[in-house]
TrEMBL record:
<dbReference type="GO" id="GO:0008234">
    <property type="term" value="F:cysteine-type peptidase activity"/>
</dbReference>
<dbReference type="InterPro" id="IPR023365">
    <property type="entry name" value="Sortase_dom-sf"/>
</dbReference>
<dbReference type="InterPro" id="IPR042007">
    <property type="entry name" value="Sortase_A"/>
</dbReference>
<dbReference type="Pfam" id="PF04203">
    <property type="entry name" value="Sortase"/>
</dbReference>
<protein>
    <recommendedName>
        <fullName>Class A sortase</fullName>
    </recommendedName>
</protein>
<dbReference type="InterPro" id="IPR005754">
    <property type="entry name" value="Sortase"/>
</dbReference>
<dbReference type="GO" id="GO:0006508">
    <property type="term" value="P:proteolysis"/>
</dbReference>
<keyword id="KW-0378">Hydrolase</keyword>
<keyword id="KW-0645">Protease</keyword>
<feature type="active site" description="Proton donor/acceptor">
    <location>
        <position position="156"/>
    </location>
</feature>
<keyword id="KW-0788">Thiol protease</keyword>
<feature type="active site" description="Acyl-thioester intermediate">
    <location>
        <position position="218"/>
    </location>
</feature>
Length: 237
């Protein structure tokens, strides 16, 4: 069980600090949470020296041969993360086509993300795959539960303000973030930090001692080593 968890956590971390879907693998043994009685130790394997560097395919901005009108619905029932180390980034046209067909996959979403300050409303899908990221935000860490631990979501920077996670850079401390689930749970977070970090900085993926939400995207639609990372703390109801 531990080995399987490590495997998917590694894939999730590698993707979280993606530059539109292509970065190296990461294996994390566990997290440390400051105020908890059970202490864990975070470690990164020696295989992660080139952590999150875009693959050659990504640098060439190759297009994945797929038709967003032909949706593989079986893929939306999977909750595990894919290996993105050798996958081409989607084009702007492919993303726009997928967004136009969002209604066909909405039933597979586990919730909705709403950020009034940037007029953002998008679907959340469990697990990160190439297909799911065409349609909305995806959970990065395995067994993610909103309102608990570090609820990490990743999405694309489309280069168009207001689309997907492109406008994250505009969020300010105190801005509200809302997540609602299919089960009717409504969770409120408030932004505490918004920063651009180096691709090697994975501290944002650790537990923070209190429930937080972490939103991650690239700071550019081009190949970049910088990531926009927004974190919000849970607002107790």
């Amino acid at each position: 069980m531990k080995q399987e968890t490590k495997k998917w956590l590694g894939a999730g971390l590698g993707l979280a600090l993606f530059c539109l879907l292509l970065f190296g693998g990461l294996f994390v043994s566990s997290f440390h949470q400051g105020n908890q009685k059970e202490e864990t130790v975070s470690s990164v394997s020696s295989e992660s020296k080139n952590l999150f560097i875009p693959s050659k395919k990504a640098e060439k901005e190759g297009k994945k041969e797929t038709d967003s009108n032909k949706i593989d619905f079986a893929r939306f029932q999977e909750t595990k993360n894919e290996d993105f180390s050798d996958m081409a980034r989607p084009t702007k046209e492919e993303l726009e086509q997928a967004q136009a067909n969002l209604g066909q996959v909405e039933s597979y979403a586990v919730g909705d993300l709403t950020i009034p300050a940037i007029d953002l409303a998008m679907k959340i899908f469990q697990g990160t795959t190439y297909e799911k990221m065409l349609y909305g935000a995806t959970t990065v860490l395995p067994d993610s539960v909103v309102g608990k631990g570090n609820y990490v979501l990743a999405s694309h920077n489309m280069g168009v303000e207001g689309k997907m996670f492109t406008s994250l850079h505009k969020l300010k401390k105190g801005d509200d973030i809302y997540v609602s689930t299919k089960e009717g749970q409504n969770v409120h977070y408030r932004v505490v930090t918004n920063e651009v970090v180096d691709f090697k900085d994975t501290r944002c993926l650790e537990l923070q001692g209190k429930p937080v939400i972490t939103l991650i995207t690239c700071d550019s639609v081009q190949a970049t080593d910088q990531r926009v990372v927004v974190q919000g703390e849970l607002v107790e109801s």
